[in-house]
Design goal:
Blueprint (H helix, E strand, L loop, with lengths): L4 E5 L2 H14 L3 E5 L3 H10 L4 E5 L5 H14 L3 E5 L3 H13 L3 E3 L2 H12 L15 H7 L12 E4 L5 E5 L2 E6 L1 H16 L14 H8 L4 E2 L2 H8 L9 E4 L2 H11 L3 E6 L12 E5 L2 H18 L7 E6 L3 E12 L3 E8 L2 H6 L2 E6 L3 H9 L5 H4 L4 H20 L4 E12 L4 E3 L2 E5 L2 H7 L6
Parallel strand pairs: 1-2, 1-3, 3-4, 4-5
Antiparallel strand pairs: 6-7, 7-8, 9-19, 10-13, 11-12, 11-13, 14-15, 14-17, 15-16, 17-18, 17-19
């Protein structure tokens, strides 16, 4: 018998839609309208009851982590339908799937997913579609894999609905397009979940990081941020911070021309002001000239900004530029946004969200959601996936280890190099208020 689903909504209209959809499929539900529907779902999951959340705006990442944890602890199925602005919904649905939650962006696909789960369809993407008309097989083709014996089969039950058949029982699961979205969400959740990723080597003395990040809330400069990340092995270009034109020229000659010169300032970021960096600088005289130009431009751009000098770094050619932002999540996880940092990628909003740590295979699937993923995952570029995975896990480990002190880490760009390898060209570690909280603790005396 199909289990009764608790469905909690934050809008009465959504609850009505869920009730109508469930009635059409004969799906037993216990609907609940609540200002805090996630709490209702969590309570049901902790009772080992299947539950679904339907909300009119994306839930917070910590809320999704909490629901995923509750479901994993009791082995109770959990699903979400998230409505709202398409760009925010897409990222939230992707994150939920990575956490092992069945996630869709509408009510009817959610009801179809619940019907499949209630019928015990563990691998519906491997079900037989032979009984279906050709047009239905076309609608499902993008989510189906070769059929497996014992994986069940899909059938046409009437003019509108598909059915799920397994061991003689038949369960109505919805219209073909809704079923396709439901099967895609079930597959994403099956491939998701918190992975047992390989540990990141940490050959460090904690004091070496604490000396850099300790202090009041602030955004660290690029050189300081890289110093904090260095003990975790985050790869950076060969570079040197220089405070005078002559020092910049000497370091450029040591590194080898041509070089890249970028302003170093905790107040002016190169990703916000790309004209504060110059590529392909060749010759000592030109280095001195660019040093003065960049410093002058920085002072005029923000008269009160702190200018530390310039960073002189080895020039390298990138095949792709990524933007990575990481922040702490509960349960030892890090929320990571990954997107393309080039002008086209930024304008197109080509980015996605996930939770780390994760296996290389899952990170590959996450990168596959990007429109420009071929730059990273095309045949013959397996080394790029390995290198990106390595950096992502190291940044996530840093965020987890220093979650009390650090609110976020941004790497922009993370350059995927033409000749192989990867380097964090610019980084920003943002420090929270942990230092201020220690000042508020009551003093203890002898």
């Amino acid at each position: 018998m199909t289990a009764r689903w608790t469905i909690a909504c934050d809008r009465a209209e959504l609850l009505v839609e869920c009730a109508r959809g469930a009635e059409a499929l004969g799906l037993p539900i216990s609907p609940a309208f609540d200002p805090d529907p996630a709490r209702v779902v969590a309570d049901a999951l902790l009772r080992a009851e299947p539950a679904a959340l339907v909300v009119a705006s994306p839930p917070s990442p910590p809320t999704l982590v909490s629901l995923a944890r509750c479901g994993a602890e009791t082995r109770a199925p959990v699903a979400v339908a998230i409505l709202g602005p398409p760009d925010r919904v897409e990222a939230s649905v992707a994150l939920a799937g990575d956490l092992g939650i069945v996630a869709v962006d509408e009510v009817r696909p959610l009801v179809s997913a619940l019907a499949l789960l209630g019928a015990g369809a563990s691998r519906p993407w491997s079900a037989s579609t032979r009984p279906l008309p050709e047009v239905d097989r076309l609608r499902l083709a993008h989510v189906m894999e070769p059929a497996e014996r014992g994986a069940g089969r899909l059938s046409r039950e009437d003019d509108a609905l598909l059915g799920w058949r397994d061991r003689g029982a038949v369960v109505c699961i919805g219209e073909p397009r809704d079923v396709a979205l439901a099967i895609g969400a079930l597959r994403a959740a099956h491939d998701g979940g918190v992975d047992a990723a390989p540990p990141v080597p940490r050959e460090l003395e904690p004091r070496s990081v604490l000396d850099v990040i300790f202090g009041p809330p602030r955004a660290l400069s690029d050189p300081a941020s890289k110093s904090a990340l260095a003990p975790y092995g985050v790869p950076v270009p060969l570079e040197e911070l220089c405070t005078s034109p002559s020092r910049a020229a000497a370091e450029a000659a040591r590194i080898g021309f041509p070089i890249r010169i970028a302003l170093a300032s905790p107040d002016l970021r190169v990703w916000d002001h790309p004209d504060l960096a110059v590529d392909g600088v060749d010759g000592a005289a030109r280095v001195k000239e660019v040093f003065r130009q960049v410093m002058t431009l920085g002072r005029s751009r923000a008269p009160g900004a702190r200018l530390l000098g310039v960073t002189v770094m080895a020039a390298s050619t990138a095949r792709a530029l990524l933007r990575i932002t990481a922040s702490p999540l509960p349960d030892g996880l890090a929320l990571v946004e990954i997107g393309f940092a080039d002008a086209h990628g930024v304008a197109a909003g080509d980015h996605t969200l996930t939770a780390l740590p994760a296996s290389e295979a899952r990170i590959g699937r996450v990168l596959g959601r990007l429109a420009g993923s071929e730059l990273l995952l095309a045949p013959g570029r397996q080394g790029s996936l390995e290198a990106i995975t390595d950096v992502l896990l190291k940044v996530a480990a840093f965020v987890d280890d220093w979650r009390d002190e650090v609110t976020s880490v941004q790497v922009d760009p993370l350059a995927v190099l033409v000749g192989g390898g990867i380097e964090a060209r610019e980084a920003c570690v943002t420090v929270g208020d942990a230092f201020l909280r220690t000042l508020e603790l009551p003093a203890t005396g002898l």
